[in-house]
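Hi C.,

You asked whether I'd gotten around to modeling the 132-residue construct. I have! Everything is below, sequence then structure, no commentary in between.
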Amino acid sequence: MMMKRAEGPLGFRFIDRLKVTEPGPARELLIPAPSRGSPMRAIVVGYRRGLGKINQGVSLVRVLDWDWSTNIIGWVVVARDRHGNVYEGRVVARHGRGNVFRVRFEPHLPGQMLGGLAEVRAPARPPAQATS
């Protein structure tokens, strides 16, 4: 496990525990945060869970480079596994008051992706309609 120390928006310190199975993703987390307009980095935390069941259709994703003033509901999340499979989903809602969001993937994420990296992108804008 790799520990990453960061400072929250209100000045408190917190520690993220990341499951790193390959040396590649760990190096990506040490680079500075991307500028605006580029994809944000995220970690798949787990599935949405209730008292009696686990909802595998909705995954919880922690966005690392999220600006609190940006509303990312409706944005696209792309996760790739080590075999090259691509899983694409949409941000449905926030999960709690932190930087964790509920994402509905299609097809659903397999359990091997838990703890893996993903990226969050702004949705492509639809083409402008001609006005007459």
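If it helps when you're writing up: The domain at 39-121 is CATH 2.40.10.190 (Thrombin, subunit H).

Thanks,
B.
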